[in-house]
Please model this.
Amino acid sequence: MLSFLKAGQKLTIILLILTFAAITADAQKTMRPQPVWWFGEPGALNFNYYRGTTQMLNNNVTVPTAFHKGRGVKPYASILVEYRPKKVLGAMLNVAFDNRGGKFNGVDAPCNCPANLSTNMGYVAIEPSLRIAPFSNAFYIFAGPSISFNISRSFTYLQQKQTDVHDDWSDVRRTIFSG
Model:
């Protein structure tokens, strides 16, 4: 579109457009009442890191070589409801799917065969919070408890020259309380 113009001319035109857009965008301010109820869909990524010794996966599966470290990136998605009757004080309720899965670093089994372990740990989290906006503007702080219910605790163990194992972890807490 602007291929016949020199770089300096293009830059001048772009700066003029941005200047006039900023002037006209700020020209009309409408004051409207803020709603009391707010709704949203937050989403994020969980960066999960594992450490320690993992060798007994459940009552039926104990692997020959222990896994020590791992990591994974899994989704976090939720539905958020906020109640803001005042500018400073409010309440929030977040109901989320929280996946904490990942893959452990590979190890060599005694047969000199590579072995891999991956996990899929999923939770439904309920997080009520108190919302405080100390300066009565968009900045706010929230705090409250969180209760998470385990809905998925599967693992996959792969070892060369062995049958693949797809099963569930044992000794996983079904409910987690945090804050």
